[in-house]
Amino acid sequence: MSNSVLAVEATGIAKSYGTVQALKPTDLRIEPNEYYVLLGPSGGGKTTTLRLIAGLVRPTAGRISIYGQDVTELAPDKRSTSMVFQSYALFPHMTVEENVAYGLTLRRMPRDEIRAEVSRMLDLVGLNGYDNRRPHELSGGQQQRVQLARSLVLHSDILLLDEPLAALDAKLRKDMCLELKNIQKTVGVTFVHVTHNQEEAMTVADRIGLVAGGELVEQGSPEAIYNRPEKRFTADFIGENNIFDGTATGAGLDIGGRVLGLPTPAETGREISLSVRSEDMRLLDGEPKPEGWQALSGTLIDKVYLGLIGSSVVRLESGQDITVRQVGAMSSGEVGASVTVAWPTEAGRIHLS
Amino acid sequence: MSQPTTTGGRRQPASSPLSDLLTGERGLGRYAFYLPLAFLIAFFVVPMLLTLVWSVFERTNFWMEPGFTFGAYADFFGSARFENFLRAMKSSAISVLVAFVLGFPIAVFVRSSVPEKAQHKAILLFILPFMISEVIRIFALRPILGRHGVLNDALIGSGLIDDPISIFIYTPTGVVIGEVMSYLPFMVFCGFLAMESVPRYIFEVCDDLGSDTLTTLRRVIVPLAAPGILAATIFIFINGIGVFLIPDILGGPGAVNAGTLVLNAISALDFPLAMAIAAIMLVILMALLLIGHWLFDLTKLLDPAKR
Ligand SMILES: Nc1ncnc2c1ncn2[C@@H]1O[C@H](COP(=O)(O)OP(=O)(O)OP(=O)(O)O)[C@@H](O)[C@H]1O
Ligand SMILES: [Mg+2]
Fold first, then answer.
1. Homologous superfamily (CATH) for B46-302
2. Are A82 and B208 within 8 A, CB to CB?
3. DSSP string covering chain B, please?
4. pLDDT for A52 beyond 90
5. Whole-prediction pTM value?
6. Which domains does chain A have, with CATH numbers?
7. Which of B201, B205, B218 would best serve as a mutation to test chain A binding (most A beta carbons within 10 A)?
8. Cβ of A89 and B202 within 8 Å?
9. Which of B211, B219, B224 is opposite residue A92, by nearest beta carbon?
């Protein structure tokens, strides 16, 4: 895999707007036919990264290659990329068919070929029979499908999507996620998708790149990023994790008076963090702490029943709030009661940074 | 601190006979919405009808008397006035075209390349000249366009020409220059207004799809901005044939437009003729507006939601 040509290979790309560093020097490698998601908080630099790949903005440093060709100096239309914008990006005065055909007419393709190609794409995105509608006669989801078709019809090697589902409601977004993923597998094109919605990212991605503060913080499969985050930031951003910061004492973590057991030893004296997923924690209802578990006592300050799971918030003596999510059973304790939270030592994950 | 409250604590607004008269349920306030309508009737419909009616009145020595004759129209179409009128229309059309070619790209540029926050300020700069009296604006062109004016001096100074060009002023070209200078801001303003509802990243979409600037303009931007372009076109065209100041100040001897013709008719105390010319201009204006509305629905200009 590593010696095959990459769909996108960016080395040291950076972008500054005046004094604002939107993206610090970053390396990005995206495999052919991969569904890659750039996920991160607002203002982190996701859009900037995407637009650098598209060529809509020029990097202040670094090079970008697409399928082995250096495109750093190329205009957007000279790159084999195509962009799907957040919303309102259809031509309002053209019908669905004209919108989708626009790029092809610029390429001077014969009319009947265009028509055939356009109707094939509308089929693919599930908009058969909408040819003559205008954008304002479509729902938000349908408009985004048209945009998708307009980009796909050009058969670019890479499709770039900037928050394509942000304007849709939760239910529709979920459906569209699955559909996007299906379409990507059908057409076999590399997708780079920007979102700040974690669930959306987890649903569609083959690989997620977490972007924050102008940096690519961490990347990996959804499963790896969720279960084995390397960085403290990742643990904080993905899922619902409880994080303890402290100083390593070899086998333990000193969090100011208390020493917690670590899953693997860490260099003594080093500032590290330990994260534990809220669903790996339990409230001990008077029962003794099992062998190989860590426990901390505190006060139950909140209890919410969410159907499948129950969520409890415990305030530790240190003042830190811990979230415990348990499937099915709720803790029998009342709000205000003294409780003990516990977790298997090996459920903890060490973050050196 | 607590006050005794009446009827559930809700305070009634103080009422007086005057406020009742204005804003009370049966007060005059009800009719506020009809005010614009009254305005329209008093200052637009009535004068228009009067113009039409008077244009068929009989001419008398100093005024006119009720009657029904197309004499004034025959007089207009049967004389050199008609030719002059047509020439003014042609020159006006050229001004519209030049204003479009110069002004619309400015509007597009402001919309596509100026930061969103600064756009309105940039446009304001273009409309500022409108705040100066038109007479002064046009008069100020004389020292610029003349044989020994700023423009010729600059051209000679830069070595582009050896002898001053005299076509800039007191010629039909001078009239066109004056009209373009005067009404260009309107093209910029209307163009921008129409472009405001065009999302900025339409430009990026076009870039991304591989649409070159001219194709983008022709197939996307101009169609979207058409109502604004048309509004500016009508405005400039009608002013071009109607405002006599520009041919008066910048045109050569014999430079006339419809405005001059009306003025001359009034000086000659031929009121029906003046009315007939005004009526013809009105018909042209209404026809342009109707065509425009039929093509593009001009109300879109004021209502972004319709696009
Ligand atoms: N044209 C610009 N001029 C100045 N600063 C910019 C510009 N575009 C982006 N920035 C800045 O660069 C940083 C990164 O912006 P970017 O749009 O890439 O963030 P993002 O991750 O896409 O955020 P969001 O989720 O809100 O869209 C932000 O601080 C932003 O203010
Ligand atoms: Mg963004």
1. MetI-like (1.10.3720.10)
2. yes
3. -PPP-SGGGPPPPP--HHHHHHHSTTSGGGGGGGHHHHHHIIIIIHHHHHHHHHHTSEE-SSSEES----HHHHHHHTSHHHHHHHHHHHHHHHHHHHHHHHHHHHHHHHHHHS-GGGHHHHHHHHHGGGGS-HHHHHHTTHHHHSTTSHHHHHHHHTTS-SS---TTSSSHHHHHHHHHHHHHHHHHHHHHHHHTTS-THHHHHHHHHT--HHHHIIIIIHHHHHHHHHHHHHHHHHHHHH-THHHHHHS-TT---HHHHHHHHHHTT-HHHHHHHHHHHHHHHHHHHHHHHHHH-GGGGG-GGG-
4. yes
5. 0.79
6. 8-227 (3.40.50.300), 240-351 (2.40.50.140)
7. B205
8. yes
9. B224
